[in-house]
UniProtKB/TrEMBL annotation, chain A:
<dbReference type="GO" id="GO:0004021">
    <property type="term" value="F:L-alanine:2-oxoglutarate aminotransferase activity"/>
</dbReference>
<keyword id="KW-0808">Transferase</keyword>
<dbReference type="InterPro" id="IPR015422">
    <property type="entry name" value="PyrdxlP-dep_Trfase_small"/>
</dbReference>
<protein>
    <recommendedName>
        <fullName>alanine transaminase</fullName>
        <ecNumber>2.6.1.2</ecNumber>
    </recommendedName>
</protein>
<comment type="subunit">
    <text>Homodimer.</text>
</comment>
<keyword id="KW-0032">Aminotransferase</keyword>
<dbReference type="InterPro" id="IPR015424">
    <property type="entry name" value="PyrdxlP-dep_Trfase"/>
</dbReference>
<comment type="similarity">
    <text>Belongs to the class-I pyridoxal-phosphate-dependent aminotransferase family. Alanine aminotransferase subfamily.</text>
</comment>
<dbReference type="InterPro" id="IPR045088">
    <property type="entry name" value="ALAT1/2-like"/>
</dbReference>
TrEMBL record, chain B:
<dbReference type="GO" id="GO:0008453">
    <property type="term" value="F:alanine-glyoxylate transaminase activity"/>
</dbReference>
<dbReference type="InterPro" id="IPR015422">
    <property type="entry name" value="PyrdxlP-dep_Trfase_small"/>
</dbReference>
<protein>
    <submittedName>
        <fullName>Glutamate--glyoxylate aminotransferase 1</fullName>
    </submittedName>
</protein>
<comment type="pathway">
    <text>Amino-acid degradation; L-alanine degradation via transaminase pathway; pyruvate from L-alanine: step 1/1.</text>
</comment>
<dbReference type="GO" id="GO:0005777">
    <property type="term" value="C:peroxisome"/>
</dbReference>
<dbReference type="InterPro" id="IPR004839">
    <property type="entry name" value="Aminotransferase_I/II_large"/>
</dbReference>
<dbReference type="InterPro" id="IPR045088">
    <property type="entry name" value="ALAT1/2-like"/>
</dbReference>
<dbReference type="InterPro" id="IPR015424">
    <property type="entry name" value="PyrdxlP-dep_Trfase"/>
</dbReference>
<dbReference type="GO" id="GO:0004021">
    <property type="term" value="F:L-alanine:2-oxoglutarate aminotransferase activity"/>
</dbReference>
Length: 548, 478
């Protein structure tokens, strides 16, 4: 994974040089400009100026093209070469090396630990799991505990009751068995009930597909929708790079629409329209619109009014609405509220026959942050039965998602209720985490806004801040001399000076000529003041070094 | 409607996955109507009553609820070695079961897998070339995704095959190049036949890039001999094919003449130039063996002779899905380093695992013998894996009746079997078979005490079916 971007640039170069043994089909999807982009982008300037990396090939090992091995870098699927996933890219690899080196070489660095703000992985930064959920999972994993009297001394009574209830929903009480490919029916019933309670509209458990996290669900839907580069998916820019990567792997085209930083990352329907028309004029059939709400990496929470416009737009244009709602429980401001697209569509009076809507949810986010469990689901509505069968078939090829992730997905939709043994501790844990996240978001946002040349919209929701850095020309030039994107240059300097790991904005896409980075709000609260100090000091010295 | 069937990805529409196809759906319907169904369609042991091994469940329960480790009473419910092991695995994570791991899996568990492979094969294994996955299926998909560029790329797949391969190759838009296993030679693999398959594919302009072997075989249950594996590896060397070794049933061996030998060991035994140049990816899982932990979705693959830059690309694609689920990674760690003699839990663990394997061995025998006692049914012995794959010699009358019902003959037979007995099987056509020959696949997993009754009810159905359609001539050929 090291040097994804460089590798990619190199391989694109190689491909271009060796046109004769790369099929025309693959080359044709590269834009005719000299700057390759992560996925075909039919309008505006390239999202990521990869051209900056193209000359940085000196460090690469000798090409294995000369080898007679069947599988070499030159003979693998070019879609694999083309996709990128910056959240775990070059900077994270540098960070991991620094972390290893820190163990033996403590005095060589001006910091004593690496702080990973690159990925929304709360429990890796010390957030504790919600105890009730884990009690239930432990009991379901080792069911003979339920027969032991000592168990009552170690587990809450409602966790024991809940474990029994869940086991009764699993055929044969077999937590080690493959389940129905959509997930265990009883668990889907619980999730459907939770969604009904949230939205006030009916949910059919047969519309729910439980998956190993939201990512495989999104990948599955894109696989269904994309046949070739003639199929396009509207994605926000900046976007979570799962979308660009999955579109590239599936051989489709990413059709970008830009979120407006000046209006708190607002979504303009007029821009959507323009992008769709432009894509269509290039022969691209736009199949779906991706909306991430609350936004990743941008942290905005959409207003209901805006969501209505989006739903109407999808209806008019005949687009599938892919609603990434994995941060639905992460809202930090009192003037905004999460509304599901399902609720907005149904409130407008649109039913099954009016709009095709897929909503994605995950157990990795929220206050629970159970990333390692790989649990999630999608609710699929407004598709004909023949399309539904195809979605089901795709789910069956992978047999089923992991059972403990399925159980947890049902638990977060049916947490302890008032009167239950665990209720008070559960509420304290949940609110403790959410209010702390809100404070951390606020503190970091204010600190960033105090930096010279940095502006940062508030994190209304999700887990990220996405500050814009007005980099001095001298810094941009310095980045160019080392063949690095200016924001990546800044982020590497930040890492080497402070141990703080963030992701350059170029990994998410940004308006050309602007520079950002994404920073999670997840380090434990007691560490935030120190992070602010380190960041502030670093930024000051960076600006002192490069100020025009 | 925004999305019509016509506009869907053609590769998705083309893909077939029989293990959960028409028969399974009908069985689920009948079950809802209150009929007792015996699901022998999927290798899913716990669903049919196999109890999970105690020790790994204790360890994972403690990892799920790490606060128990601080409770002074934890020793009343958990043995000391399970507690120690839970602490060990938690120390390998960066935030317990709730944090994403490295996209390739926890480094500490990959090291344990490498040590297991070294003990098994007697050759070193590099943890950096081992990736943990959400089940072996995900691993197979990752590798095929990397290999297949388009329909000009072919993958050699045994027929009959496990339909994961045909389904994934379709989804990725590649070409399946079949090679036939020889039923009369106990599903042996003939290298001349391989050569023919490759020559034919090449004459059609297909670049054959990889070869899949399933050892022990699914659905066919045969174990490959060392000599046969050598021939296969030599063939891959000569033809420049990467070998994908599906070895998920390596613990499931039911005879003593042909123990499991890994492709990696045979390759290393062959020495240079083979051991340096043949590219190999081997797959394993926690879903099979005597573990049968299907619901965990845990697996790994090990790469041999794959260039570092390709490994990086595979890592990159793995990183898009963030990480495999962490509890299954711990199951994998436990599978490759189970309790040792002298450990508190050793006796119980050994008793449980031996009990399961010995019972599977007996069931394999009961099932093969049961099928061979039926009219117009012949069945090779299940040497390994979890399946019986009898050939059903359908009389012309039955084939005619199937045609009238608009069904493939073996689907017709299996549906009738399901309606009459509740036994849910998978028709051979879902795995591929020679034209005009019909099979079905059952697992050998129903509880041992139910086995005689199941085989009796099968025999009763089959013999009546054969009598009903028998007109004494023109059987579908052997």
């Amino acid at each position: 994974m090291r040097r994804f971007l460089i590798n990619q640039g190199k391989s694109l170069l190689d491909n271009t040089r060796r046109q004769h043994h790369t099929t025309r089909r693959f080359l044709s999807i590269l834009p005719s400009t000299s700057a390759p982009v992560p996925v075909p982008v039919p309008s505006r300037a390239p999202l990521v100026s990869l051209s900056r990396f193209l000359s940085s090939t000196s460090k690469m090992a000798a090409s294995d093209s000369a080898s007679s091995l069947p599988v070499t870098i030159d003979s693998i699927n070019p879609k694999v070469l083309k996709c990128e996933y910056a959240v775990r890219g070059e900077i994270v690899n540098i960070a991991q090396k620094l972390q290893d080196d820190l163990k033996s070489n403590k005095d060589a660095y001006p910091f004593d630990e690496i702080i990973y703000c690159n990925i929304g992985n709360p429990q890796s930064l010390g957030q504790l799991p919600i105890k009730f959920f884990r009690e239930v999972l432990a009991l379901c994993d080792h069911t003979s505990l339920l027969d032991e009297s000592e168990t009552h001394g170690l587990f809450s009574t409602d966790s024991i009751d809940r474990a029994w209830k869940i086991l009764d929903q699993i055929p044969g009480r077999a937590t080690g068995a493959y389940s129905h490919s959509q997930g265990i029916k009883g668990l889907r019933d619980t999730i459907a009930a939770g969604m009904e309670a949230r939205d006030g509209f009916p949910v059919d458990p047969n519309d729910i597909f439980l998956t190993d996290g939201a990512s495989p669900a999104i990948h599955m839907m894109l696989q269904l929708l994309l046949s070739s580069e003639k199929d396009g998916i509207l994605c926000p820019i900046p976007q979570y790079p799962l979308y660009s990567a999955s579109i590239a792997l599936n051989g489709g085209s990413l059709v970008p629409y830009y979120l407006d930083e000046a209006t708190g990352w607002g979504l303009e329907i007029s821009d959507l329209k323009k992008q769709v028309e432009e894509a269509r004029s290039k022969g691209i059939a736009v199949r779906a619109l991706v909306v991430i709400n609350p936004g990743n990496p941008t942290g905005q929470v959409l207003a209901e009014e805006n969501q209505r416009d989006i739903v109407n737009f999808c209806k008019q244009e005949g687009l599938v609405l892919l609603a990434d709602e994995v941060y639905q429980e992460n809202v930090y401001v009192s003037d905004k509220e999460f509304h599901s697209f399902k609720k907005v569509a149904r409130s407008l009076g649109y039913g099954e026959k009016d709009i095709s809507l897929v909503s994605f949810q995950s157990i990795s986010k929220g206050y629970y942050g159970e990333c390692g469990k790989r649990g999630g689901y999608m609710e699929v509505t407004g598709f004909t039965s023949d399309v539904r069968e195809q979605i089901y078939k795709l789910a069956t090829v992978n047999l089923c998602s992991n059972i403990s992730g399925q159980i947890l997905a049902s638990l977060v939709m049916s947490p302890p209720k008032p009167g239950d043994d665990s209720y008070d501790s559960y509420i304290a844990e949940r609110d403790g985490i959410l209010t702390s996240m809100a404070r951390r978001a606020k503190t970091l946002e204010e600190a960033l806004n105090n930096l010279e040349g940095v502006t940062c919209n508030r994190a209304e929701g999700a887990m990220y801040l996405f500050p814009r850095i007005d980099l001095p020309q001298k810094a941009i030039e310095a980045a160019e001399t080392v063949n690095t994107a200016p924001d990546a240059f800044y982020c590497k300097r930040l890492l080497n000076a402070t141990g703080i790991v963030v992701v350059p904005g170029s990994g998410f896409g940004q308006v050309p000529g602007t520079w950002h980075f994404r920073c999670t709000i997840l380090p434990q609260e007691e560490k935030i003041p120190d992070i602010v100090n380190r960041l502030t000091e670093f930024h000051k010295s960076f600006m002192d070094e490069f100020r025009n | 409607m925004a999305l019509s069937y016509d506009s869907l990805n053609e590769n998705v529409k083309k893909c077939q996955y029989a293990v959960r196809g028409e028969l399974y759906l009908r069985a689920s319907e009948l079950q809802k109507e209150g009929k007792k169904i015996i699901f022998t369609n999927v290798g899913n042991p716990h669903a049919l009553g196999q109890k999970p091994l105690t020790f790994p469940r204790q360890v994972v329960a403690l990892c799920q609820a790490p606060f128990l480790l601080d409770d002074p009473n934890v020793g009343m419910l958990f043995p000391a070695d399970a507690i120690a092991r839970a602490k060990h695995y938690l120390s390998l994570t960066s935030g317990g079961l709730g944090a994403y791991s490295d996209s390739r899996g926890l480094p500490g568990v990959r090291k344990e897998v490498a040590e297991f492979i070294e003990r098994r094969d007697g050759y070193p294994s590099d943890p950096e070339l081992i990736f943990l996955t959400d089940g072996a299926s995900k691993g197979v998909m990752q590798i095929l995704n990397c290999v297949i560029r388009g329909d000009g790329d072919g993958i050699l797949v045994p027929v009959p095959q496990y339909p994961l391969y045909s389904a994934t190759i379709s989804l990725l838009g590649g070409s399946l190049v079949p090679y036939y296993l020889d039923e009369s030679e106990n599903w042996g693999l003939d290298v001349d036949n391989l050569r023919q398959s490759v020559a034919q594919a090449r004459s059609q302009g297909i670049t054959v890039k990889a070869m899949v072997i399933i050892n022990p075989g699914n659905p066919t249950g045969q174990c490959l001999s060392e000599a046969n594996l050598r021939e296969i590896l030599k063939f891959c060397y000569n033809e420049k094919l990467v070998l994908l070794g599906d070895e998920v049933y390596q613990q499931n061996i039911y005879q003593d003449e042909r123990p499991f030998i890994s492709s990696k060991k045979v390759l290393m035994d062959m020495g240079s130039p083979f051991s340096k140049e043949v590219q190999l990816v081997s797959f394993h899982t926690v879903s099979k063996g005597y573990w049968g932990e299907c619901g965990q979705r845990g697996g790994y693959f090990e790469m041999t002779n794959i260039p570092p830059r390709v490994v990086e690309e595979i890592y990159k694609v793995a990183s898009i899905a963030l990480s495999p689920n962490v509890s299954a990674q711990i199951f994998m760690g436990l599978m490759v380093s189970p309790p040792k003699p002298g450990d508190i839990s050793y006796d119980q663990f050994a008793r449980e695992s031996k009990g399961i394997l010995e019972s599977l061995r007996r069931r394999a025998r009961i099932m093969t013998d049961g099928f061979n006692s039926c009219k117009n049914v012949v069945c090779n012995f299940t040497e390994g894996a979890m399946y019986s794959f009898p050939q059903i010699r359908l009389p012309p009358g039955a084939i005619q009746a199937a045609k009238q019902a608009g069904k493939v003959p073996d689907v017709f037979y299996c549906l009738k079997l399901l309606e009459a007995t509740g036994i849910s099987t998978v028709p051979g056509s879902g795995f591929g078979q020679k034209e005009g020959v019909f099979h079905l696949r059952t697992t050998i997993l129903p509880a041992e005490e139910e086995m005689p009754e199941i085989m009796d009810s099968f025999k009763k159905f089959n013999d009546e079916f054969m009598t009903q359609y028998d007109n004494n001539f023109g059987y579908s050929r052997m």
